[in-house]
Each structure stands twice: as structure tokens, then as C-alpha cells.
């Protein structure tokens, strides 16, 4: 089993991370990314390139995921994440400044698991997800 972490499927160097395929190998290839599951384009692209793939998702509590993304943004010195605490970002209303609402959406939307699973199921049968 080969596990690839954060290889970014849609970058130009993606295939450089994989060994040359062989018809005699029984190896399984896995890739881990926190960005594909909630992507609107990834399921369609993946299904067109790898229609027989088995899609495995490991989910964490959506609130933990939201906080993790907020901390990720702080570590990358996102000005909004540095200016406002997590509670302020998550509880902001639609009247809040656009930069807070943008960060709020980026924290919360990936945790809408039912929405994302439905999207993947439009491109893969349930037996593959």
C-alpha cells in the first residue's frame, strides 16, 4: 500500500508522485487531501479520469474541521483570521464585512458532509463511495 499525502491532484506535477504502473502489481495507491471532498469540480474530474476508483472519506466532527481550517489560515497569516477570533468568524451575520463572511464560508462549507457526499454520488455509484 502506498499513501501519498497532499499531492494536489490537479497540479501539473501530480503524476510525478506515482510509480510507473505495472500490470503485475497488487499495490493500492491512496492519496490524502483535505480539499477534494468539498470541491464542486473534483468528483466530475475524478470520475472522468478514474471511473472505477474507490472513494474513501474519513470525516471529523465538522466543528473540529472548521476550527482546524481557521488555525490553518492563521498559520498562513491570513489577515482576517489574525484580526478576528474563531468565535467572531463563525457567529458573524450576513451584515458582517465580506472578508469575515468569506473566511466563515471557507471554515464551514467543507463540513457540510451530506451536501458533498450527494455530489460525489452523482458521479460514482454508492458501491464505490
Automatic annotation (TrEMBL):
* Pfam families assigned to the protein according to its UniProt record, in alphabetical order: Sulfotransfer_1
Please give the Gene Ontology molecular function terms for this protein: deacetylase activity; heparan sulfate N-sulfotransferase activity
Q: Which residues cross the membrane?
A: none
Q: Which residues form the Sulfotransferase domain?
A: 50-129
Kindly indicate whether the keyword Transferase belongs to this entry: yes
Top-level lineage group:
Eukaryota
Name residues in a coiled coil: none
Record PANTHER family: BIFUNCTIONAL HEPARAN SULFATE N-DEACETYLASE_N-SULFOTRANSFERASE 4 (PTHR10605:SF45), HEPARAN SULFATE SULFOTRANSFERASE (PTHR10605)
Similarity comment text for this entry: Belongs to the sulfotransferase 1 family.
Name of the protein this chain belongs to: Sulfotransferase
Q: Which organism is it from?
A: Ceuthmochares aereus
Q: Which gene encodes it?
A: Ndst4_0
